[in-house]
UniProtKB/TrEMBL annotation:
GO BP annotations, alphabetical order: carbohydrate metabolic process; cell wall organization
Cross-referenced PANTHER family: PTHR31375
Keywords of this entry: Cell wall, Cell wall biogenesis/degradation, Glycosidase, Hydrolase, Secreted
Major localization listed first in the record, in broad terms: secreted
Lineage: Eukaryota, Viridiplantae, Streptophyta, Embryophyta, Tracheophyta
Keyword Signal: no
Any one Pfam family match given in the protein's UniProt record, by short name: Glyco_hydro_28
GO MF annotation: an example: polygalacturonase activity
Subcellular location: Secreted, Cell wall
UniProt-listed SUPFAM superfamilies: Pectin lyase-like (SSF51126)
Protein name: Polygalacturonase
Keyword Cell wall biogenesis/degradation belongs to the record: yes
Organism: Aegilops tauschii subsp. strangulata
Highest taxon of the lineage: Eukaryota
Length: 166
């Protein structure tokens, strides 16, 4: 079991992928039975614009979040500079990612953020039995851009994934 109770830590992060136009591949990873408390990010896949390669066949299962600022993130536009990074057309492919039995509380209203590339949209994503609420009560939100897949079981906040190709 993985567990953390600290600020500014990303316990479960895949990336940075594709920094400086490199090719990176991450495949067949399963993260299971984790408790994340008071972290900046929860489960995350991050890649740089202009990168190449893939992140696929990934499964995050039985994850409990307590007061996590960004519980679920896929970000194909990662940039760590104070000024915006240059817009690139290449992107690391993100495909076949499952979030299963993820529950708990978000420190922010947006609990799910999936931001994918116009040229390499995220496909075959699945949200299954995801239940995230805002600390102190209230409904959380989800935002998706160029992301497709399916939702199964109870999913809260409501899935923002497009069905079929984005």
């Amino acid at each position: 079991m993985c567990s953390t109770n600290t600020q500014h830590v990303v316990l479960v992060s895949i990336g940075s992928l594709g920094k400086n136009r490199t090719t990176d591949r991450v495949e067949n990873v399963r993260v299971d039975t984790c408790l994340l408390t008071n972290t900046t990010n929860g489960v995350r896949i991050k890649s740089w614009q202009g990168g190449m390669g893939s992140a696929r066949d990934l499964r995050f299962e039985s994850i409990v979040m307590k007061n996590v600022s960004n519980p679920i993130i896929i970000d194909q536009y990662y940039c760590d500079q104070p000024t915006p990074c240059a817009n690139q057309t290449e992107a690391v492919e993100v495909r076949k990612v499952e979030f299963v039995d993820v529950r708990g509380t978000s420190a922010t209203a947006r609990a799910i953020k999936i931001a994918c590339s116009d040229t390499a949209p995220c496909t075959e994503l699945e949200l299954r039995n995801v239940n995230l609420t805002v600390v102190g009560g209230g409904a959380a939100t989800a935002s998706c851009y160029r992301a497709s897949g399916k939702a199964a079981g109870v999913v809260a906040p409501a899935s923002c994934l497009a069905k079929g190709d984005p």
